[in-house]
Amino acid sequence: MSDVRAGCLRLPSGKSARPIAPNSVLSAVLIFVFNEAGEPHVALIERSHRSPNNPGELAFPGGILHPRESALTAALRETEEEVGVKSSDIEVLASLDEIATPSGFLVRPYIGLVTGRPDFLIDPTEVERVVTVSLAELALPSVHRQLPFPGTGVLLNHFDVGELNAWGMTGDLLAQLLTIAADGRRGDDRVA
Questions:
Q1: Three-class SS of residue 110?
Q2: Are 55 and 67 in contact (CB under 8 A)?
Q3: 20 to 30 A from 14, CA-CA: which of 26, 92, 105, 158?
Q4: 103-131 residue pLDDT tens
Q5: CB of 42 closer than 8 Å to CB of 133
Q6: Residue 33: burial class (beta carbons within 10 Å; 0-12, 13-18, 19+)
Q7: Which helix H or strand E contains 136, and what residues bound it?
Q8: Which residues of 148-174 are buried (b: 16+ CB within 10 A; e: fewer)?
Q9: What integer is the mean pLDDT of 161-177?
Q10: Predicted TM-score of the model (pTM)
Q11: Which of 43, 29, 63, 48 shows the shortest CA–CA distance to 125?
């Protein structure tokens, strides 16, 4: 956890992105790291299989900003709504660069720490389950690979997390988290 904290404290504030889709929707996610068995872990959600957006995919807790709501407030609110982790239990360390997605979202990611493994309480309308994985496991060559997105040649980060695969924006954010924990710098600034 000290590696994540130290890496985040060396980061400048995240930069804004230019939308790549018209009428992009502002949203935010929270990448939160917690200590379990002496190792830093990250929590992902498997989206509800009934979700209209990316059903069954791995993601970080987060969602669309409400009117006059800051991105950080939205990330913390959505984390509490989706997985039951209260904002008072989260130490927010850094904001990462905003990500513009081809599906029309402008996403502001935040990194935070939670002391110990949280007692997750999921909202079944949004979340199928919480999946946790250690940063050490994510760093294994057998877990992380880069594959080209069909038809574009753009390489996307993929992480095998149990029987699921984190890819796209989630994969890119996991790769950034590993880089930050290793040496306190962001990964590439490629559009997801």
A1: strand
A2: no
A3: 158
A4: 888 999 999 999 999 999 999 999 999 99
A5: yes
A6: buried
A7: helix 135-138
A8: eeeeeeeebbbbbbeebbbbbbbbbbb
A9: 91
A10: 0.87
A11: 48
